[in-house]
Design goal:
Chain lengths: 314, 224, 481
């Protein structure tokens, strides 16, 4: 039995776990630089995680099992998604078990439980964050599914490995449907990962929190897991985008030779995406909550246009 | 440039035209509307030029130049001038809210695709797939005229409609005969001057360009 | 001859741009229109003896159908110019228009005639569209001539609704060109009506039916078919009366002409009666909606605009029905409706000028105050509702006969519409012409000739259709098979 794909799979998950905080650190660093501040360094998120793991958990008296279970669940879905999305190679053993729709569903499960956990304690902040998050989710889900469908239609499969494979065989380059889907994906990614202009990840003000509000009550290793899962979600979305639209560099065959170059490409691409995210974040202001419907409506519109142009133009 | 690449570029530009049409549909700021209209004209002009080059139809170069000067240069300039002179508010109100407008726009796109399907099958041109998009642009221009309450946006919707028609002519038949194209351009120009004059009249009489004010001529109830 | 026909109004328009506010400007207007009419008659004689002709290198085409409309157009514009002289002079005295606007008015009047004639005489379907648009544009600013809020609103609606409608017609023309190109090759040849008619059997039916839908919506808006008619009552009632007269009497005819030409093509291609059925449906709907709307009107010009919609509906219905009797009736109807409606507008114009208002409740005592206006209006209304011995009775009778023969189920609706219109109009006219003259009304000189001429023609045609007219119509009917 060929163990190499399994090892690559394991390597991929470990890479995800280690690289995710680095991406967040890189983004924070760039942001500080662009704002003329001293940054805390690339490794600060790692230090934060270590610190949190060492601390005690403080639980509310009326916390149910959902509250205690959610961090592990969210972390688990992140790892599982990391095993499916082609980060280093497309020849993954887990790939046939799940396609892109399953990935979207995994994120949905994670979000669902986070929202429940936010409401679990009964504080006002938690409930508010959960309701806002759900509003965003209800608008973002159709849009991301539409965008994914467009990509799948173009590449004739919903399995990500297959999609990358088709892109490698060089058929679709300048297709308007993919361009639309790409634009839609960017908007959705901003919404799902809670970046500006949808949500400010660094705020704790009542008026502006969405994601932060849901996890406000967590502490200790629970908080560490949830934070880590959030970082992983950002990385996963970025890698999902890369795999769907610009996958060059991902190893096509399951052998160890191509892995280092795949790693290199991944780091490079993540770096570039970090720069782009910082450009967006510093360039735009956070939108008012009720304008989110228009923002996500525009994302849905772009995604639908992409799908329609696939039928109409290709 | 071979036919396939040209067809791809043509599709891409068509998609951009549709995108600008939707952008105009949801845009609330008047200057943004004018800029989007100018971009739409630009994409159309480039598209026409490329089609002319590939299909070897020289009169399309003239059409392209005409579009460029008229729809990217002259008309936005006139609109800018009018807005500046009349000191119009920079934002427009809508009759139905924006997400709903976008949804209706999408429905119109699907509808026009369905409507144009028999024609698309029969066509042998490289631009045949863009006929549905042209009709969609026409319909979105119409939608824009209906859902906006400001005279300037109604006119821009009308002009976007004309853009769609021009695009339809290019994609269905490599452009109408030159005589017709020139005549249509002349008509658009005259229409532009007329609506410029109109704005002044409306503004002087009604003191605003909100067309909701113009409701006096409705059917009255019988009271005799 | 054809060049004179088109050149004179164009030249007149340019001349009046500069001279339009002089004292003799209305006379120039009349002279120009008379010359146009003479040229029209000359052309008619040529075609009568030589048969249909192509001119200008196939660019123009004259056959019985558009020729008689061209003569009608030039005739009515001539009489309207005569009427306009007295009328606009009075308007100027009342201070409703300044001298710059008069200049604009006269120039646009001639330009409008040019556009209409170009529309009729061209062989190129694309140029037909351009001329139609030009005709609309030249009258838009005339509708808002008085610059009142209602006038501007009417002109705005006219501009937008007709603009949108005509844009649909352009799309239909594009589709038509698309279908034609496959059979006739590219370039201007594919848009020539003569060529299209010759190959109509080979044109692709699906594309042509699609094209017809757009053309129907587009040119139908200009004809004033329900439900696309919203602009018509406003535009025809707010502009100066001569403009209302030409809009109601002439432009509607021309739009219908364009529609019928398209219908002939489509029927030739699809070999079904769908286009005709659509026209019948819209025509009947227009008739009924307009007839019932007549009951609710308070403004006199608005009421007669609805009457125009009604009659255009009848004509569309008849053209849709097809067949020799109905087509003959429809052609006759276009003719007498133009004459009668413009005569009505002449009298209405003077009546509203005398009473300084357009509201029917305030117009009274026309018989006593100004017998010519009163009796003109009375006869006009009698003509338009279809009383014998006026011409409209003849045409409506023919159309009814054809309906009973070919499409009997539609007859009760037709009768209903006609009856309601009959009652509504007569009910309104009676209080206006009878009764006493309101106080403070001064007598005024009016334009006698146009009204009398038109009504006389309508009467004559009702009793006896001259030979050449008969032959003309028959040739046209043949062409429209």
């Amino acid at each position: 039995m060929n163990l190499i794909p399994y090892m690559i799979e394991l390597l991929q998950v470990i890479t995800l776990l280690t690289v995710a905080p680095a991406l967040v650190g890189w983004i924070r660093m760039l942001k500080c630089w662009s704002q003329g501040r001293m940054s805390a360094g690339l490794l600060q998120p790692y230090r934060d995680l270590f610190k949190l793991f060492a601390k005690d958990i403080v639980l509310a008296e009326n916390a149910s099992w959902i509250f205690r279970f959610t961090p592990y669940l969210v972390f688990g879905t992140g790892i599982l998604a990391g095993g499916i999305i082609p980060i280093l190679s497309i020849d993954l053993p887990l790939a046939p078990t799940a396609d892109v729709i399953v990935i979207v569903a995994l994120f949905a499960i994670a979000r669902f439980f986070t929202a429940l956990a936010g409401m679990d304690i009964g504080t006002a902040f938690g409930g508010m964050g959960s309701s806002r998050e759900m509003m965003i989710a209800s608008l973002a889900e159709p849009a991301i599914l539409m965008a994914i469908f467009t990509v799948s239609l173009t590449n004739k499969s919903t399995s990500l490995s297959q999609i990358v494979h088709v892109i490698y065989s060089g058929q679709s380059v300048l297709r308007p449907s993919l361009a639309f889907a790409f634009l839609a994906f960017i908007l959705i990614a901003l919404a799902e990962t809670g970046r500006i202009p949808v949500d400010n990840p660094a705020t704790h003000l009542e008026l502006t929190m969405i994601h932060e509000a849901m996890i406000l009550e967590y502490s200790g290793r629970h908080l560490a897991l949830v934070e880590w899962a959030g970082m992983m979600k950002l990385s996963l979305f970025v890698m999902l985008g890369i795999a769907s639209f610009a996958p060059w560099g991902i190893a096509a065959r399951g052998s160890f030779i191509a892995i280092p170059s795949a790693l290199l490409f991944m780091v490079l691409k993540l770096g570039i995406v970090g720069v782009l995210i910082v450009l967006i974040e510093t360039g735009l202001a956070k939108m008012r909550l009720f304008r989110l419907t228009e923002f996500l409506g525009a994302a849905f519109l772009l995604a639908t246009l992409g799908m329609l142009s696939y039928f109409m133009l290709d | 440039m071979d036919l396939n690449t040209a067809a791809q570029i043509n599709s891409f530009l068509a998609a951009l035209v549709l995108l600008t049409a939707f952008g105009m549909l949801v845009q609330k700021r008047i200057y943004g509307l004018i800029h989007l209209f100018a971009w739409q004209g630009l994409f159309l002009a480039i598209n026409t030029a490329i089609v002319g080059y590939v299909a070897d139809k020289h009169h399309l170069y003239i059409s392209s130049l005409l579009t460029l000067s008229l729809k990217v240069g002259l008309l936005p300039y006139i609109l800018h001038l009018l807005i500046h002179r009349l000191k119009i508010h920079k934002e427009v109100e809508t009759v139905i809210n924006i997400p709903m407008t976008m949804l209706i726009g999408i429905v119109l796109v699907i509808f026009s695709y369905h409507l144009m399907a028999p024609v698309t099958e029969l066509s042998t041109l490289i631009t045949r797939s863009t006929l549905a998009i042209a009709l969609a642009t026409v319909m979105i221009g119409l939608l824009m005229m209906i859902t906006r309450r400001h005279a300037v946006t109604q006119i821009i919707g009308f002009l976007a409609l004309e853009n769609g028609l021009f695009f339809a002519a290019t994609s269905a038949t490599y452009g109408m005969p030159l005589v017709v194209e020139l005549g249509v351009a002349l008509d658009v120009l005259i229409a532009a001057f007329i609506f410029g004059i109109f704005f002044f009249h409306i503004h002087t009489t009604f003191d605003s360009l909100d067309v909701e004010q113009m409701v006096r001529l409705r059917e009255e109830d019988v009271d005799d | 001859m054809l060049l004179i026909l088109l050149g004179v109004p164009l030249f007149g328009a340019v001349a009046l741009v500069f001279l339009g506010d002089r004292k003799y400007a209305p006379e120039i207007n009349i002279l120009g229109s008379a010359a146009t009419f003479a040229a029209g008659l000359g052309l008619a004689l040529e075609v009568y003896f030589q048969g249909p002709m192509l001119a200008g290198g196939k660019f123009f085409f004259v056959d019985a159908f558009n020729l008689y409309l061209a003569v009608l157009t030039s005739f009515v514009s001539m009489t309207t110019a005569i009427f306009s002289r007295r009328y606009m002079r009075r308007e100027r005295e009342h201070g409703r228009v300044g001298h710059r606007r008069i200049r604009f008015y006269h120039a646009m009047f001639q330009l409008f005639i040019f556009a209409m004639l170009l529309c009729l005489l061209t062989n190129n379907v694309g140029v037909l569209w351009i001329a139609m648009e030009l005709a609309t544009l030249s009258t838009v600013l005339l509708v808002s001539l008085y610059r009142t809020p209602t006038a501007i609103e009417a002109a705005w609606k006219y501009f937008l609704l007709c603009g949108v409608g005509i844009a649909q017609a352009l799309f239909g023309t594009v589709l038509l060109y698309f279908a034609a190109e496959k059979v006739l090759g590219e370039g201007g040849e594919a848009l020539l009506w003569t060529n299209l008619n010759a190959v109509s059997g080979k044109l692709e039916p699906t594309v042509l039916s699609l094209a017809f839908v757009f053309l129907m919506v587009g040119y139908g808006t200009k004809v004033g078919l329900v439900p696309l008619h919203n602009w018509l009552p406003d535009a025809h009632s707010e502009g100066p009366t001569p403009i209302s007269a030409v809009l109601s009497g002439l432009l509607l005819n021309i739009a219908l002409y364009a529609l019928v030409r398209c219908k002939v093509l489509v029927d030739g291609s699809t070999q079904t009666h769908h286009a005709g059925d659509i026209m019948m449906g819209f025509g009947l709907m227009s008739l009924l909606v307009a007839a019932f709307s007549l009951l609710r009107q308070k403004d006199i010009k608005r009421m007669f605009s609805y009457s125009s919609i009604e009659h255009m509906g009848i004509a569309t219905f008849a053209f849709g029905l097809g067949g020799p009797i109905a087509t003959f009736g429809a052609l006759l109807h276009m003719l007498v409706h133009s004459l009668a409606k413009s005569a009505i507008f002449f009298t209405v114009g003077h009546a509203s000028q005398m009473h300084r208002t357009q509201e029917m409740a305030k117009i009274k005592g026309l018989f006593k105050g100004n017998p010519l206006v009163g009796w003109g209006l009375m006869f006009g209304v009698l003509a338009i509702v279809g009383m014998p011995p006026f011409g409209i009775f003849t045409s409506e009778f023919l159309i009814l006969t054809a309906t009973i023969k070919d499409a009997p189920l539609w007859t009760p609706f037709l009768l209903l519409g006609l009856g309601v219109a009959f009652a509504a109009l007569l009910r309104r006219v009676q209080p206006m012409v009878a009764g006493d003259v309101p106080l403070n009304q001064k007598p005024m000189k009016i334009a006698n000739i146009p009204v009398m001429l038109h009504m006389a023609l309508v009467l004559i045609i009702g009793i006896y259709i001259p030979d050449f007219l008969n032959q003309w119509f028959h040739t046209a009917v043949e062409l429209l098979k």
